[in-house]
Amino acid sequence: MKVGRDRGWEAYGIEVSKWAADCGRTTYNLDIRNIKLESVEEVWGKGFDAITLNHVAEHLHHPTAVFKMIFKILNDKGILLVDVPNELEGFMYNIVGNLGRKYIWYRSKEPTLHHTYFYTKDSLIKVLDKCGFKEIFNRTLNEDMLIRSKIIGGEAIKKYLFKIGGFFNQGPVIEILAKKKECFHEVDIDT
User: Fold this and answer.
1) Is residue 46's pLDDT more than 60?
2) Whole-number Å distance between alpha carbons of 191 and 185
3) For 124, what's the count of Cα atoms within 13 Å in the CB-facing half-sphere?
4) For the chain, which end, N or C, has fewer CB atoms within 10 Å of the first or last residue's CB respectively?
């Protein structure tokens, strides 16, 4: 939000954590509200040019309902940017991690309880399509993952593996840019 505001955009945000919303307001003087998405239209109206969900969709209990609400508050030429962990990449790295657990890195065997949905690039594109969006760009990012080195040089090995994954478009984070479909009459946003 700060980057967008610094570039001259009107930036608004919602945050489920009251502490995080307060921090964004006091630290960066941002218009962040501790409200639900359903209240956005009442607070700021609709007709947004861009909406971002940065590591949010994997936490949602009803992602299609959220994407449909976003569809309603975006303007007709608006764009949606979604970043989520790459489940396919996570699966691949878990296999490698389990094979080399004692030697290269460690990743917890416990399930990730705070993620309610796991996405591959294809599954996220299908969900967005179902909600009235057309993917216009996608890529994977090589952000760092929670894998700790168990040996000297393990961090270098990890970075090398991330670069290899990026070469095959299998980085740890999926990024999808989407817009509303051209044929609005073909989209049933109420179901």
Assistant:
1) yes
2) 14
3) 31
4) C
